[in-house]
Amino acid sequence: MQPNQTSQKVPAHLIFDQAPRRIYWEVTRACALACRHCRADASPSPDPCELSPEEGLQLLDRIAAFGAPRPHVIFTGGDPLERADLFELIAYARSRGLGVSVSPSATPKLTPAVIRRFRDAGVEAISLSIDRTTAEDHDALRGVEGCAERTIAAALAAREAGLPLQVNTLVAAETVDDMPGIYRLACDLGAARWSLFFLVSVGRGTVLQPIDAQRAEKLLGWLADLPREQGGPFVTTTEAPHFRRVLLERRSLPQVATARAGFGIRDGNGVLFVSHTGYVSPSGFLPVAAGNVRREDIVGIYRSSPMFVSLRDARSFHGRCGMCEYHAMCGGSRARAWAASEDILAEDPLCEYQPGGAKER
Prior knowledge:
12 helices, 11-stranded mixed sheet, about 350 residues
């Protein structure tokens, strides 16, 4: 297929050209877990080249310089708790008017006291991973015995502390049949959000098997049809933005009402990732750097680098993603496009939708 040549104007509210909505900062790659699908190839010890405490504070200053509305910063890793100055970074981010969430690993360091400390420091949410319904299977995926038990204990401690919880779940051939059970568990834990991470074959994730497009479509349809019961988690996807198209199809939502639920946000358009050594990418699952905060201003990288500019123009996408009538609010996974073809503008092979409404069977 040829690149899309349509002149269709992308609605302004779906273009995030001045500032990202979310910045994921991989503060360290150190982690006590050994997850089979780890994007970061995490290791037990910190990388001596990771951003220093002083560089971290400078980075937060520059993130605040994006202006209002300021990006929300997610401290991730590795395990952020392996970084000695984590709470100093959180305090400084809050002092600069930045919203903060933390994605810790379920290790002995994640105690109820630490969870309460997160809450008291102004952290708005934490995320924990639940990838299988049985402890044995979850621990096998995470590489450390007892991880499942610690995850449930941390989730209960977050509920007790009044700290909103996001449950992250890997979607791969090895886990997909567990989705109904994990959803029920997320409900039982009082999770505010359930985010399904559709496998992209990067890092250690290359040892797992992704699901195919047909199975993905079936799963997304099931997610869209989940009852929106009071107290149930808000369901989102990572690296499967075509969930938005499924929602629109299933619920007959008007396309003009798409500012909700992250419509339009994708790798490079509303999302930015900073590695532990300062490299700036559109996503942690898209390991192609547009610059480094040690040498360049993060604001300028996001607003002006050719990579980010091209990712914000859905009309430039190739194949079905470029021609699709949903490309502005979806755009496909740019990380998966790159993993499949080394072309960040290529079509997303996980989506089976055929533009114009006629699906191939």
